Amino acid sequence: MAAKPGKSAASSKTTAAKANAASHGGTRPAPKPAKFTRDQEMEAYRMMLLIRRFEEKAGQLYGMGFIGGFCHLYIGQEAVVTGMQMAIGEGDQVITGYRDHGHMLACGMDPNGVMAELTGRSGGLSKGKGGSMHMFSKEKNFYG
Questions:
Q1: What is the b/e burial string over 4-21, where b = at least 16 CB atoms within 10 angstroms of the residue's CB?
Q2: Percent of the chain at pLDDT exceeding 70
Q3: Residue 54 pLDDT greater than 80, yes or no
Q4: Cα(52)–Cα(144) distance, rounded to whole angstroms?
Q5: Which residues, including other chains, have CB under 8 Å from residue 62's CB and lie 6 or more apart?
Q6: What is the pTM (predicted TM-score) of this model?
Q7: How far, in whole angstroms, is CA 14 from its chain's centroid?
Q8: Between 111-118 and 38-63, two packed helices, what is the crossing angle to 10 degrees?
Q9: What is the chain's mean pLDDT, rounded?
Q10: Which residues contact 140 (CB under 8 A, 6 or more apart)?
Q11: In three state form, how does the secondary structure of 33-87 look?
């Protein structure tokens, strides 16, 4: 957003934020920054790294023809599902569309079972029948 003459870019952003809040009736409180312990931050980093490395390997296997059908990778979105999983509570359910591998890993599903599903093996989380887009785990409240 370009600053108006005589105004700094920062004050223009502040004005835009106030206008946005006013357009919602001014009823939304400002979001509060999340507070995490170092251990929580490290766990989030490990999860994002697991998802990235898993997806890189899935992309390689897809390119080699070991994964049939489509393979919609989650690369670049690791922080989304990691943050989401840190925020949801017990009993919350997750339903996704495409690009659900990261969701499965973040909710605690075994990476070997997810990869087995991608490659169509009976040891997969949906017995090798769901593939990349249709995985399921009632225990984890994940309804891909």
A1: eeeeeeeeeeeeeeeeee
A2: 82
A3: yes
A4: 19
A5: 71
A6: 0.75
A7: 30
A8: 20
A9: 84
A10: 104, 107, 108, 109
A11: CCCCCHHHHHHHHHHHHHHHHHHHHHHHHHHCCCCCCCCCCCCCCHHHHHHHHHH
Give the separation between CA 36 and CA 79, rounded to whole angstroms: 15
Question: What sign does the CA torsion over 100, 64, 52, 79 have?
Answer: negative
**What pLDDT was estimated at residue 86?**
92
pLDDT range class, residue 14, cuts 50, 70, 90? low
Q: What is the DSSP letter of 26?
A: T
SS3 assignment, position 132 = coil
Enumerate the domain spans of the chain: 37-144
CB distance 121 to 74 below 8 Å: no
Would you give the DSSP letter of residue 124?
Answer: S
Question: Within its chain, how far is the Cα of 99 from the centroid?
Answer: 9
In angstroms, rounded to a whole number, what is the distance separating the alpha carbons of residues 112 and 101?
A: 12
* Predicted confidence (pLDDT) at residue 12 exceeds the cutoff of 80: no
Helix (H, G, I), strand (E, B) or coil at 94: strand
- Whole-number Å distance between alpha carbons of 70 and 86: 29
Nearest to 132 by CA among 66, 65, 71, 60: 71
